[in-house]
Amino acid sequence: MPELGDSPGNEDLAAKVLKAYTRMKEKASKRDSRRKLGNSKWEPRINDKVLVKTQPVSDAIKGQTSKFMLLYEGPFLISKIYPHSAYELKDENGRARGKFSKKALKPYREETQPSYEQTEEM
């Protein structure tokens, strides 16, 4: 009577583990190739305009839901650069806003699309 491990369709455990490991590595390399790289090459400089990520909080009395609030505030100007990707910001009036990590900042882009009034004139 043949046993379960004797049939040619069954592989030994080491071969199965090796096959699963190589398949897992192949799929991981495919995911890495599709990964979004973001703005890791962006290096903010002094007097650059940036937006700051906020942590919105809901307020039931005012009827505000954090889901619909803006994620970024700004624009702010970089006034000082500290080591390890920390930046001191100030608003356009010159008041200090605080120190922030590069992860909490996003470059501010001026509006380049024509406004509604300009498109009406065309």
Lay out the secondary structure.
Blueprint: H1 13-34, E1 49-53, E2 72-82, E3 86-90, E4 96-101, E5 105-107, H2 116-121
Report the uncertain regions: none
Number of strands: 5
Mean pLDDT: 84
Kindly name the structural category: alpha+beta
CA gyration radius, whole angstroms = 27 Å
Main sheet: strand order: 4-3-2-1-5
SSE order, as H and E? HEEEEEH
CATH topology of one domain: SH3 type barrels
CATH top-level class of one domain: Mainly Beta
Q: Can you give the helix content as a percent range?
A: 10-25%
Global geometry: elongated
Distance between the termini: 88 Å
Instruction: Give the biggest sheet.
Output: 5 strands, antiparallel
Could you say what the CATH architecture of one domain is?
Roll
Strand content: 15-25%
Helical stretch tally: 2
Structure description:
This protein is of the alpha+beta class. Helices cover 23% and strands 25% of the residues. It has helices spanning 13-34, 116-121, and strands at 49-53, 72-82, 86-90, 96-101, 105-107. It has a five-stranded antiparallel sheet with strand order 4-3-2-1-5, with no helix packed on it. Strand 2 (72-82) and strand 3 form a beta hairpin. The model has no long low-confidence stretch (mean pLDDT 84).
